[in-house]
What does this fold into?
Amino acid sequence: MKEKSVTFQSEEDAQKVAQQLPEARVQGSQVFYSDKRALELAISVAGINGYEQQSRGIPYPEHEFEYNGDCPRIHVRCLAAYNSGLLHGLWINAAQHVNDIQDDINWMLSWSPVAGSEVCEEWAIHDAEGFGTFSVREWESLETISNIAQAIAEHGEAFAAFIACEFPRMNEIEDWDEVLEKFQDAYLGYFDSEKDFALKSSEIDEMFDFAAFQKQFPFWANHVDWESVAVDLFCGEYYSVKASDKGYGVYVFRNCQS
It folds into this structure.
């Protein structure tokens, strides 16, 4: 059975109707359905009055929208609808090519509830998830979002932490391959704490040959003040960023400026 769609006055109305239709698919304020009688019953049960049968809109993007919860995403809204008091938007997978992100946005705009009476070209990012410590601005460049999101999907939220510290001015980044190379050179891993890094890092062990010291001087090795060692290490050569996505622990990096 061919899939059809209706657009409601708000995303909340669309969600209420979709709850009554197990097989329905929701995108913003739009509900896709295949059984008209089931839709009419769902609308009645949800107590919704205003909706519009869709006969316009550009085709759904060929790459298809898929989001499994493991990669960054952005919520983009139609400003024409927003300025008319309507909430129409779409959660978009940010870890894809910038052209695919733009295709998703264009598709969302084409189905805006005000598209029949207004030109729907302007949009804004009203929410974002999965970017760690990096804050996505309302007018962030899609190219920047795509590059960061794809890197986070590949390397985890440690990359977001690195970007926030090393490149606070996103618009000054010209070579993302160089940024990725710097990240791979600087990132030393996730640890429970800075002290944990001092104790368990193979780099620190090799630098000071603690294994040999422990073997030769076992008594003194057991009395090392690792808290103090960590303080000295993180005063210059290394720095850490709280792993907010994990709830505890730190991401440790070599200081690129040292």
In short: Strands lie at 4-8, 25-27, 30-33, 51-53, 73-78, 89-93, 123-129, 187-191, 238-242, 250-254. Residues 186-254 form one domain. The chain has twelve helices and ten strands. The mean pLDDT is 82.
